[in-house]
Specification:
It catalyses: adenosine(1518)/adenosine(1519) in 16S rRNA + 4 S-adenosyl-L-methionine = N(6)-dimethyladenosine(1518)/N(6)-dimethyladenosine(1519) in 16S rRNA + 4 S-adenosyl-L-homocysteine + 4 H(+). About 40% of the residues lie in helices and about 15% in strands. It is α/β, with parallel strands linked by helices. The N and C termini lie far apart (about 60 Å). The structure holds S-adenosylmethionine.
């Protein structure tokens, strides 16, 4: 298909296309999407996953940054799946700038083979921007999949793990061999599934919680007392906030779960710290 379109994939946009129909079927099956579901696909590229998603009976809204690829998609769908054309929409746009009001419907599922360099920012942006998004299955670089799904205490636990956990649970679903892509990337891939939790983790302000997480992991080898001293205003203040939150000031960020980070943020927003 790529040769037919005279496409020259660019590394900058993470353009590695899945050409294996079994992999497409597997992703669609694992995503659980079907008749009547509303799917958001980021980076449809040449449309192999798009066609698989449409084949399930789902409505698909695709967001593609590359106009050369995006402008071809309606014709590809009309030719390969004419019965599904009415269930397909494409926006030629940066997914990192997508806003709820750009979309005519409210997607419930994110299913995507993501551009690897922006995979985590895209997922976090869409979860923040689209409250209707309840389920996700995304293909990312294996190391990123490990970071997204890691729990406290693990070597790969970090900012992506905690921020994703703010929205709900994430898990590494399956590895994907590099041979299914064209061009073949020099990294391995994996599928990550995530769900939005029915109840928020905490009523703390998300931006405040994320600020604590960023500060704690910016110096992950340091104790929380030291790592949070600038965020709090001083080491003494950091220690008092941590104690009020019931968190040991000598602990490190990598030992805390998302609820602990939320308690720390809450604690700073309450007297005597405000
Ligand atoms: C890994 S390829 C996946 C292509 C296709 N879904 C597949 O599986 O064959 C990533 C796609 O995301 C697009 N892309 C890159 N950055 C993007 C962004 N910020 N917003 C939307 N699409 C983007 C690329 O142009 C490319 O088509």
């Amino acid at each position: 298909m790529a040769a037919e379109l005279d496409v020259r994939p660019t590394k900058k946009l993470g353009q590695n296309f899945v050409h294996d129909p079994n992999t497409v079927r597997r992703i669609v099956d694992l995503s659980g999407v079907g008749q009547g579901d509303h799917v958001l696909e980021v980076g449809p590229g040449l449309g192999s996953l798009t066609l698989g998603l449409l084949d399930s009976g789902a409505h698909v809204t695709a967001v593609e940054i590359d106009p050369v690829l995006g402008e071809r998609l309606p014709a590809t769908v009309a030719e390969r799946a004419p019965e599904a054309a009415a269930r397909f929409t494409v926006h030629i746009q940066d997914a990192l700038k997508l806003a709820a009001e750009d979309l005519a419907d409210q997607p419930t599922h994110l299913v995507a083979n993501l551009p690897y360099n922006v995979a985590v920012p895209v997922v976090l942006h869409l979860l923040a921007e689209l409250p209707s998004l309840a389920h996700g299955l995304v293909m990312v670089q294996t190391e990123v999949a490990d970071r997204m799904a890691a729990g406290p205490g693990s070597r790969t636990y970090g900012v992506p793990s905690v921020k994703l956990a703010w929205y709900g649970p994430a898990r590494k679903v399956a590895p994907v061999p590099r041979a299914v892509f064209w061009p073949v990337p020099n990294v391995d891939s994996a599928l990550v599934g995530f769900e939005r939790a029915a109840e928020p983790v905490s009523d703390a302000d998300r931006d405040e919680v994320f600020a604590v997480v960023d500060a704690a992991f910016a110096q992950r080898r340091k104790t929380l007392r030291a790592a949070l001293s600038s965020w709090a205003g001083s080491g003494e203040k950091a220690e008092a906030i941590l104690r009020a939150a019931g968190v040991d000031p000598r602990a490190r960020g990598e030992q805390l779960g998302v609820r602990d980070f939320a308690k720390i943020a809450r604690s700073k927003s309450l007297p005597p710290f405000v």
